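Figure S7 source data.
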Amino acid sequence: MKTIIEPFKIKSVEPIKFTTKEERKKILAKAGYNPFMIHADDVLIDLLTDSGTSAMSSDQWAGIMRGDESYAGAKSFYKFEAAVKKITGDKFIIPTHQGRAAEKIIFSILGGTGKYFASNTFFDTTRANIEFTGAEAVDLLVEVGKHPEKRAPFKGNMDVKALEAFIKKVGKENIPMVVLTVTNNSGGGQPVSMQNIRDVKNVCKKYGILLFLDACRFAENAYFIKLREKGFEKKPVLEICQEMFSYADGSTMSAKKDALVNIGGWLSLNDDELALKCRNLLIVTEGFPTYGGLAGRDLEAIAQGLEEVVDEHYLEYRIRSTEYLGKKIMAAGVPIIEPPGGHAIYIDAKRFLPGIPPNEYPGQAIVCELYIQGGVRTVEIGSVMFGKYDRDGKLIPAMMELVRLAIPRRVYTQSHVDYIAEVVIETFNNRKKMKGYKIIYEAPMLRHFTAKFKPL
Ligand code: F0G
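Tokens for the predicted F0G complex:
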């Protein structure tokens, strides 16, 4: 087999700034050892997120010029609506400015004190939008998904037995919705199988509970189904996507991921009454239902992006280039969540730095060191992000201590990826010298964005 190449050529380039190690040490200290606080200009390779960081195609940029900016009934909206319908098959397509805006709308309507929502794993904004209403968000991931070192094809699956037990425990009338996050971002970018979607659907149907997809990375999930699930080897990815959505009653979407754009999202659904409520709330919070917090040009770019993201050359390159990074650092002994996920590689900080306990934030130590060593920006997904305190103020650590290397779509080439691998491996080889961190400032919610640290 020949080398898998980037399925595009580059028409417009964006220079990146080189800094010295000494400069980076100062920059990091000034940022309170929190890479969210670093100016992007001081980052050489930015793996903070795959969200809103995609490179758009020439056709998408052409769409930007074609955008119809009419307040109501813009041509661009109908294009967007048709493109989303083609994939989701849903009756009502409501544009939002990003994923969390769709979450805010649906959960304010369905949530409230005494309500429960269950998922394979909720993403942090989704969980926050649920908890903000007074409801509870419960993760029911399959057991294998909780073990970074164990390999399985669909580690993002929901534990269907646990779901049924949970419904019996809290009562079906208290669970307005089950959400499947595809792929499972917080659990390592791991896919959910079609069989699992069907099984979850059957349970939801039995108890009259809505099933939604948190669809941010639906195309990557579909490609994993094609690669790994029996019976899908020959099925076009678009059809796999359509089947995934066919079992759901709706979706929330951050177009900043698998629609290959820099801003946008949607809420899709089929229930007339619920759609009416959502649209009314949309008008108050986002905008008129044919633009929903976006410009007409953004809707054009999303419509085009949805065509491009199901292209199988693109998806082959996408999934294989993430895997390439994972395999390369694994070969040098770096512990990661196996197998590599779709949009990111997750370093297992517990095994990388076994001497640093969770309350000294081993993930944060790796994040800081990757920046110092090579100007690579990553993010901790562990006890900084998900840690809580007990009554005595003692840290209740997160389930896993991870560092995410999220790969922006169509942005970096193979030599960038080789460089990233070198930085990770060098950091790994120096791990005995690394120290933990202490939090010296934190906000009451979503603390990881603004926390300040001190090296121990
Ligand atoms: N759901 C999932 C699974 C996500 O990964 C994200 C965003 C959202 C919802 C919210 O979408 O940002 O458009 O409001 N994830 C980004 C990340 C921020 O870095 O993983 P949004």
